[in-house]
What we know:
The chain is mainly alpha-helical and 210 residues long. The protein has 7 helices and no strands.
Amino acid sequence: MAKIKDTAVEPFLDALASQTATPGGGSAAAIIGAMGAALVSMVCNLTIGKKKYADVEDEMKHVLGKAESLRRRLTSMIEDDVQAFDKVMAAYGMPKETDADKARRDDAIQVSLKLATDVPMRCCHAAREVIDLAGIASDKGNLNVISDAGVAVLAGYAALRSAALNVFTNARMINDRAFADAKLEELHELLAGAESATENAYDVVKGKLS
């Protein structure tokens, strides 16, 4: 079976809309973030080599390298989210006839929930980076494609907040509260300032288009 990242858009959307639980919101968050990173790359590619933007070329090359790395990371998370969810479902489907069965099942559920928390958390980290890179692209990128930098920052923000929902969902079911609380604190730190960074970049873009 082909990996989701290797399929065309229409089959992916069909799978997203189907009655199966995967791919779902986590995979959608990852691909939205990857799209944001790709748009940052596009703005950089259309800025680099232009005489008018020679003074920011080195910085744009640096941003491009980071954006491409993020795009690859986020794209791989599309499948990671599916696998994490499948492991949770497999754990819930384990036998629970005896006390030993129940103990093994409970342990497996807790392990899988931690994985299902870690995957969207990684997506949140990557999406937050997309926001920051899109902010640079919005400020210094080629004016002819500056609206694409605005779309990039909005995509990064949507990916961050979307993936955060999966972190919140899974963290509340984890018995290891030290682990769960640490993840939630990590998440709140990522979310802090993300909205203002997004709005600032959006306002920069809108101002350049007015």
